[in-house]
From TrEMBL:
It comes from the Bacteria. This is Pimeloyl-ACP methyl ester carboxylesterase. PANTHER family: HYDROLASE ALPHA/BETA FOLD FAMILY, PIMELOYL-[ACYL-CARRIER PROTEIN] METHYL ESTER ESTERASE. One of its GO terms (molecular function) is catalytic activity. It comes from Deinococcus yavapaiensis KR-236. Residues 24-255 form the AB hydrolase-1 domain. InterPro entries: AB_hydrolase_1, AB_hydrolase_fold, Carboxylesterase_BioH, Epox_hydrolase-like.
Length: 268
């Protein structure tokens, strides 16, 4: 494993490269950092690249305008990857989609895990139990108590709004709280330049695409992934049982089977 420091604007993106072969870049969720991919880095037979985005993990934010897809392009150029498969979870999935639309020639394949999607229809209502959790989350956000907010975000994103509280425990929960705690305490510097909405342009995605979602995630996230699979021309949907918003983190062995099969098929 080799440590990398990638200059992008005034930021220095901290990451790691491991293994040999085709390049697979893992893009972390907005409640995590590159450590969420430890199991995948160890198990994937490829050259894997992970890095912390601005304000996450070991990468400090900078007081400047920035775009996540520009940072990703800087990472690919730094490691000498002309093309790569992008594996992104949640916010990381959004970045992968936005990058594929902006730089299709650099993308060999996409693995999108419960991705956020710019321009996607927002849910008008939530089931009562989900609405109650979102109200609790809002109260935690307004409290100014970072530890309380961190625990509440673990309840929503790790346990899942359709799962029972404390469903995920032990080392996984401790790592989630550590990763998300770093992000919650980071300085909010810099202004993100958002990409154009991806939702109206999903038919323009040409790369083979695997979409993964957990059956304990938000109902609208599951519906969005189903719609995504129907709108991208070469896409397949996998629903992972007993998994919430971070299925690759929760069930790395099961996810790895799907990832390995996708990498094998998309390299033909």
């Amino acid at each position: 494993m080799t440590d990398i420091r990638v200059k992008s604007g005034e930021a220095e993106l901290i990451g790691e490269v491991s293994g040999e072969g085709r390049t697979v870049v893992f893009l972390h969720a907005g409640v995590a950092d590159r450590r969420m991919w430890r199991a995948q880095v160890a198990a994937t037979e490829a050259r894997t690249v992970t890095y912390d985005r601005r304000g996450f993990g070991d990468t400090r934010p900078q007081d400047e305008p920035y775009a996540h897809i520009d940072d990703l392009l800087a990472v690919l150029n730094h490691v000498g990857a002309e093309r790569a498969t992008l594996v992104g979870c949640s916010q990381g999935g959004k970045i992968a989609l936005d990058f594929a639309l902006a730089h299709s020639e650099r993308v060999e394949g996409l693995v999108l895990i419960a991705p956020s999607i710019g321009g996607a229809p927002a849910p008008e209502t939530f089931p009562p139990a989900v609405e109650a959790l979102l109200e609790d989350l809002e109260v935690a956000e307004e409290s100014g108590d970072v530890d309380r907010l961190n625990e509440m975000e673990a309840r929503v994103w790790l346990d899942g709004v359709l799962g029972e509280e404390g469903r995920v425990s032990g080392e996984l929960r401790a790592l989630f709280l550590d990763m998300n705690g770093v992000a919650l305490r980071a300085s909010q510097l810099g202004e993100e330049r958002p990409a154009d909405p991806a939702w109206p342009r999903l038919a323009d995605i040409t790369a083979p695409t695997l979409i993964v979602v957990g059956d304990l995630d938000f109902p609208h996230a599951q519906e969005r992934c189903s719609r995504l699979a129907s709108l991208v021309r070469d896409a397949r949907l996998v629903v992972m049982p007993r998994a919430a918003h971070l299925p690759s983190f929760e069930h790395p062995e099961a996810f790895q089977g799907h990832l390995d099969a996708f990498l094998a098929s998309s390299s033909r």
